[in-house]
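Late entry, evening session. Most of the bench is empty. Finally got around to the prediction I had been postponing all week. Sequence below, unchanged from the version circulated by S.P.
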Amino acid sequence: MSAVIVIIEHDRGELASASLEALSAARPVATQLGVPVVAAVCGGSDATANDTAGAIAATCARYGASEVVSLMHPLLADYGPEAWGEAIAQFVAQRRPAAVLACGTDRGNEVMAHVAAILDAPMVANCLTINPAAEPWAMTRVQWGGSLLEDSTLAAPVKLLTVGHHAVDASSAPVAAATSSVFEPVLDASLARTVVADRVVREAGVTLTTARVVVGGGRGVGSPEGFGILEELAAELNGKVGCSRAVTNNGWRNHTDQVGQTGTRIAPDIYMACGISGAIQHWVGAMASKNILAINTDREANMVTKADYAVIGDLHKVIPAITAEIRRRR
């Protein structure tokens, strides 16, 4: 039976919200083709992996997967692009689906690239729209870091696609009954060379990726100490502080705080861009924000002209005033 397979991204059992976007994008494609959505979850082969797979399967079912397949092998206990790519390629070769989708995150694109190389098949990355009714399939995708939209077509026995991160809002659509099964790939021990062995967690809780409010600072903040008022505002709103590349280049903030094409792509409810000119690389990282408020003394700054709202003024006066008003209203 044909299907649309969705690669489920997770980190040691913690489901990535990007996977819910991929499932949501896969549903209309599968509906047009008249086939089910099948979620493919890579994991280890011990009892913990079974518990993790069960929890992930329940969530996938709520987002439209009628079948959840656990790809189990000791090498899949943690993320490894080669091992994941090989496992999924073997699963695809067995099922021969109409298409395989993943979200266009760093991991999603990396794994899909490995799958494409193993299957010697074409791949289209970072799609905004997918039309399976056209022959060949038609899609629009993001190129040049978001500054260009490209209309493409794809003709292949199995279509390999990634969906642009934040291009689709995740929405639930529970299925009547989702089945679960296990697929055990045959993996060579050499694939362990690119499996994550250990990690250091810098922070817990809200991150730039998950924050509903992001307060970003650019060169206009003036100094590392100048970010203190941004941190204060972000704390009041349970948000996170981000920055532009100019700030990290000056050594004012860590690269992990950078919003942009070479940093983190964000999609908060509101992004407050303070003293940021808005170069295209930064805009690419921020453009998925639902609302953008620019605070700048230059009314012609790129970020100001593209923002939903703007305050033309000195951020060192505007930000403390916003913080004070929030506290007064509380």
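Two things to note before I forget:
The longest strand covers residues 123-131.
The chain has a mean pLDDT of 92.
Will write this up properly tomorrow.
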